[in-house]
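B., you asked whether I could sanity-check this one before it goes into the benchmark set. Here's the sequence:
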Amino acid sequence: MFVVMTILERTTLYLTLLLLCAMVFTTGAQVASRYLLDLPLIWTEETGRHLMIWMVFLASTVVYRRGQHIAIDLFGTRLGPRGRAMIGIVITLLLAFFFFLMIRYGWELTTRTMNQRSSALRYPMGYAYAALPVGGVLLLLYAFENLVRHVRVLLHRRPSDPPTTPTPPTSGTP
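And here's what the prediction gave me:
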């Protein structure tokens, strides 16, 4: 499972990089055409905005999987590995519920707006809004991966974890 998720993460990261390059290109074309040719391109602003939407939703999945998002770990630093795993399970389940809502309502929004056309390029606006359920699916997959990781830590003790019961003193010398 880890290998498949890593391939999915890398693919998402490369796609995000491609979207970033396309956004920089379209924005650069807009600036160049406006100031050098005095002929603004009408499609570049809308394209850049929709590329940004997709880029943010895809990049957020990579950030979530890597654990590089903003987090408040006031209690987590004071607990041992099992306590952090329990908090991780609760947080991951709450996030998974939110990601499910992203998928459900994002899909509804996407299907509702497939008849609405974008102002400049005239393609269905559902294509831009589809970033919401696609990002939600990826986030839900990564949440499942995090949940499995936390449950493994909770159920299977590692050698570095402190023992749960004190060891009896050895007989003889103190």
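One thing to flag: The CA atoms of residues 26 and 47 lie 7 Å apart. Otherwise nothing jumped out at me.
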